[in-house]
Please model this.
Amino acid sequence: QVQLVESGGGLVQAGGSLRLSCAASGSILSINAMAWYRQAPGKQRELVATITSGGSTYYADSVKGRFTISRDNAKNTVYLQMNSLIPEDTAVYYCNANVQVLAITSSYRAIYWGQGTQVTVSS
Model:
């Protein structure tokens, strides 16, 4: 099995910065795309940013120019550097990974989610 553990959330004033981390562990053969999603109270979960194993990135328009996604393939870890935070960024942030899981005699692909980390931006 595979586990994703997030860290780095917290309370910050508008204009401040936070860095989220998400470390994957377990029976991992390789990790394909990794991503960050967020869910604000009363809203649907939305995609924030993605990064492929080769380093290609995608950002939602709402965070473009303020957030940066990166990954350390050796550590199976994805990061989200969030700058110029605004109150509308307040949400629970979840990491997501598309993993090739190593089984006893084969491997299979599966999607995993972290438990979420709260980010609160005060005005």
About this structure: The chain has no helices and eleven strands. The CA atoms of residues 69 and 80 lie 5 Å apart. The mean pLDDT is 96.
